[in-house]
Specification:
The protein is of the alpha+beta class and about 160 residues long. The protein folds into 2 domains: about 90 residues, Arc Repressor Mutant, subunit A (Orthogonal Bundle), CATH 1.10.10; about 60 residues, Dna Ligase, domain 1, CATH 3.30.1490. It has 6 helices and 5 strands, in the order H-H-H-H-E-E-E-E-H-E-H. The strands form 2 sheets. It has a 3-stranded mixed sheet, with no helix packed on it. A hairpin with a 2-residue loop joins strand 1 and strand 2. About 20% of the residues are buried.
């Protein structure tokens, strides 16, 4: 796993040690994810926030940089379907995700039983996991309550 950093200079050093060029775009995306108030963002969210902070960057550059940071291990990807993913700072702690399909809220969880089953499945098929991402999709309690509010009781 790449070394973690908290300042732009050490972020630049970490990028270079990981074999990346350490471009301004790479540093901007890395710093945004590392210091974000919550952990899961679409590429469009990341791009909007970086541009709102005064940086100049194309959306296509954001996608390209995210791919580089995923490949280098700084960023983890949470695939949510054929053409939609979320990105998060890779803290090195294995976890899975519960995603609300209505509001997009993401909650992290870890389950030893699921982890054991993954290993057993990989072994059964002669594979070795090099990474894992599980995103379970459903409707969170708040969205379910809005869709089906409780009915008043008859008196």
């Amino acid at each position: 796993m790449p070394p973690r950093s908290s300042s732009p200079l050490s972020s630049l050093d970490a990028l270079k040690r990981a074999g990346l060029l350490g471009t301004a775009a790479q540093a901007a995306v890395l710093d945004h994810l590392q210091h974000a108030e919550h952990g899961h963002f679409s590429a469009e969210d990341i791009h909007r926030r970086i541009v709102a902070g005064g940086e100049r960057m194309n959306l296509s550059t954001t996608y390209r940089v995210l791919g580089q940071l995923v490949e280098a291990g700084f960023v983890a990807i949470v695939p949510l379907g054929k053409h939609h993913s979320l990105y998060e700072w890779n803290r090195g702690k294995a976890h899975d995700h519960l995603v609300c399909v209505v509001c997009g809220r993401v909650e992290e969880f870890s389950d030893p039983t699921i982890n054991r089953r993954r290993i057993a499945i990989a072994k059964k098929f002669g594979k070795r996991f090099v990474g894992k991402t599980l995103a379970l999709q459903g409707v969170c309690a708040e969205c379910a309550a809005r869709a089906h509010p409780p009915r008043p009781r008859a008196k």
